[in-house]
Structure of S58 family peptidase:
Amino acid sequence: MSTTHPADPPHIGTLNSGATGTIADVAGVRVGHCTLDAGPVQTGVTVVMPHAGDPYREKVPAAVAVINGFGKSIGLTQVDELGVLETPIALTNTFGVAALAQAQIREAIAANPRIGREWPTVNPLVFECNDGYLNDIQALAVTGEHYRAACDAASHTFARGSVGAGRGMSSFDLKGGIGTASRVVDVAGMRCTVGALVLANFGRLPTLTVAGVPLGRMLAERHTSGGRQPEPEKGSIIMLIALDVPLDARQLRRVAMRAAAGFARTGSSYGHGSGDIAMAFSTAYTLPHEASVFRLPPLLADAHLDPLFQASADCVEQAILDALWQATTVHGRNGHVRLALRDAAP
C-alpha cells in the first residue's frame, strides 16, 4: 500500500459485510447524533438504541470488557453485575458524562414514574473519550437537550466520522471519530449478524496499521523530521458490539473481549493513559422488567462461539478504519487542527 489511500478502506477478514456495513444491520439497532460545531466547541453526542421499545421495561442482555480502565464512563458496574441494559447507550466527551446520565434518568422516570419509588432506580449508561485537543472541554457544552436531540435523530441510516460524539476525537494524530462495520456469519445452522460501532480517539501516527500495512509509519516519515521523541499513547476507544444471536451475559463478555484483537491490529498497545472499553449486547431476546419468572430462548453453546469471536474482532478493526476514512478535517480550540486521513494522504 502506498501513502495514497484508496477511496474505501480495505475489507478486513474473510466474512462478508451486512447489507449496509453498519451496526444497524443487526435488527432493531438505530444510531443518532447531535453535533456541536461552533468555533472552540467541537463535540457532541451519539446514542445507540438496542430496539424500538422501552429499554428499562424490556432489557437486553449485555456485558462489558475493560481492556484498559483509564476512563470515566458511568453505569459499567451494574451492567457487569446484572448483565442487562436499561437505557440507550450514550457516547460523549469526558466532561459531558454527568449531563447525559441525568438526561437518561429524567427520560426513564418520565416513561416509568414508578422508578425510584415502587421500582428500583435506573442505571444510566454513558461512555466517554477525551476530545480536549480540539474541543474546549471546560466549556461543559454538552447538555441533556443534546442527548434528546440525538435520540430523536436515531435511525437505521446515520453519518460517520467527525459527527456526534466523534466530532472532536483524534486517532493516530489524525482525525478520528465514529466508525462502524458489520459481518454476517453462519453459526450452528443460523445466519447471524454482528455489528460494531466505535468512538475512536487513540493511537500514535507511527503505529497506524491498515490491513497489516504500516501506513502510519509511511505518513510519519513523510510529514515529520528525525529526532522527535515519540509521545505516549493517551487516547481512548469505546467499542460497541451488537449481535442478533441468543447469548447470555457471560458469553457476551467473551465476545466483547475479542474486540481487543481487532483494536490491537490497527496499532494500539493499550497505553497507560488509554481508556479502552468494549461492550457487547444481544437483540435476540429481551428480559421483561416486571416478570417474576421468564423463559430464555435456547442459547448458543460455547463450542460454537468462535465465528462470533472472529466477527467481533474483524468488525472492530473495520470500524476503526471506517472512522479514519469517513472523518473530515476539523479546526478546533486555540488553532488546533486534526487532518483527516484523506487530507494527510491525498
In short: The mean pLDDT is 94.
